## 1
Amino acid sequence: MTIKKISKHQPETFEFNEENLILFQKEIKKYPETKKASAVISLLYLVQKQNNNWIPLIAIKYVAKLLSMSYMQVYEVVTFYSMFNLTPVGKYFIQVCTTTPCMIRDSKKIVDVCKKYISEKPDQISENKICSWTEVECLGSCVSAPMMQINSDYYEDLDEEKAEEIIKNILDDKLPPPGSARNRKNTSPENARTTLLEVKNA
Ligand code: FES
């Protein structure tokens, strides 16, 4: 499990913009007054979206105040879920899964590609300031291991060459289409096989 890096450069203030204030009001109405804390993940998601995909510490205090929670309670949520970032990330943010199914399918080679082309250490932004990467636990796509997530999309059935091709493209500010590198449709079998009978005759 990777420990989250916290940015040394923290803004002094954070407030929701007008659009997110409206969304906050809508969200909070879904819960009884005494259960406002249930909205914590939704509010943190709004913070991250507003703040270039990372959450400053001052925003944790802001959310805690809005929901009448303690700073530590909100901090615990932020640090528990890998989808929340506590340090700035690149325009293209790569999360490489290195949990067992991906690991036994060589996810280490994908990590090595990230180290070679993006930055030696995780959570550092590439020299051209466009991309960063990190290691994460299972992203729920073990059936297409090894895989990585770039922003909101999954890139699956990878190997070293394919990962290299994708990363070189995003460093050129071009995002390749997501999905299986072996052209599988979702997680269906290869060669368009759909029934056991077809497997038998294949
Ligand atoms: S182990 Fe990598 S997606 Fe599940």
Note: The longest strand covers residues 92-97.
## 2
Amino acid sequence: MGYLVLTRKYRPQNFDEVLGQPHVTKTLMSALAKGRVGHSYLFSGPRGVGKTSVARILAKAVNCKKGIAENPCNECENCIAITNCNSVDVMEIDGASNRGIDEIRALREGVSYSPVQSAFKVYIIDEVHMLTKEAFNALLKTLEEPPSHVIFIFATTEPQKVPKTVLSRCQRFDFRILSNKEIFDKLKELIKLEKIKATDEALSLISSRAEGAIRDAEGMLEQLISYSEGEITGDDVRDVFGFIGNKLYLELFNGIKSSEGEEIIRCVEEIAVKGYDLREFTSGWLKFLRSLLLCKLGIEDITSTVSRDALVKISEDVSTEFITAVLNLSVDLEKDIRLIPYSPVYLELAMLRMSKIPALRDINTLIKNISNETLLKENPQEEKKERKPENDKLVIKAPENAQELWNAIITKVNGSTGKNFLKAFLKDAEPVSFEDNILRIKVPSTHKKHLDEDIHFLRGALKETTGEDIDIEIITYQQKIEPKLSDNSMVTKVKEIFNAEEFI
Ligand SMILES: [Zn+2]
């Protein structure tokens, strides 16, 4: 028995065995069952998802000695010859290495001869988008008037590079990327057939690394079988394929959620020192965050390479909003890293930026705060009554002292250089009260965002003035704007332009 690699050994031999492409196989089977055979097909989709396998099954199904049927018999001489890649009537051509006009001319000559032992001559051209413009033009002539005994099956990972004139003459089938779960289940089946032991973690790591391509997953499994003695473990997968450990992702997330710049810098240094590919790092980081988010939402994720316990532990004191915010910034990071893949400094910056995401409160707390605020606006006295001082030592009594304090801050801020926006916004702010070491100020709602941004600056000014740690609470109100319609210069202008009159 010759050595047969897994990919070849378990290549699907009929449409039912094809993994994850039912939208393609069902359509082809139903056409074949009705005896309908096209003359040119285009199979597009990512690499390693079964395009050439389906092309070969189709070649067998049309040439099977038992006649055209949903599936080939896989027993007759024609089927066997195609399976073994030695049928004289089925040609597999690699578009990347036979891309020129001469190759296509030779192909066209061959097309005119009748098949030797089958009903159809089948040309399977892989990576067809690699053909030159001239080669496509030559091919097009054959496609326009194909001999009845010829079938073309084109496969491509980049259909957008195939000329429209060619596309329009083909029946097009789009193959989809396989899910981690589909690949995981397939691997599970394979190890059972091969009587190999592998942990779920190992299979899950392989599935995740294969990125939707079953062929890659099978190739990795093959490599691991020769590498490991006994059971294949997650560590084996990491050793062979240089996986960036989840430990690093966990440490990095910890650094971000607790805003520990030093820890983040240390992690990025480790990534750089160990020579990890930054693109690979960020793509793994996205997967890690996704697993974290699913865990937080209580959704089972069997493809996660991090243990559920670790995910639960690290996410217990953060909100889904926080994880989503980190995930959002990381998606941008991934895009940028693709352009500058050798810049750990950029990675560091991006991670530090993430650590500045304020610990977002969960939505329930937010709703509670909003309703409290509304209550307060409607009945400010009530809030005052409810609030009991935590200690008896009130620094200064409200509200006249609030004004005093406020004046002190304004002087301080106005005396400082820069902060011109803040100075402008403070003009509209008014002190309301000062108690329990909290100075409350009232501002138009439009100013809140800007003041929030500089709140630490205001606190610093208070600390410098009083020597105390005084907090600032910002209360907002809607500015009343009641313009008289006719006084409004914009309205006047509109009236002028449209020669209109008011009806109010
Ligand atoms: Zn057959």
Note: The pocket of zinc ion is lined by residues 64-66, 72-73, 75-76, 78-79 (CB under 6 Å).
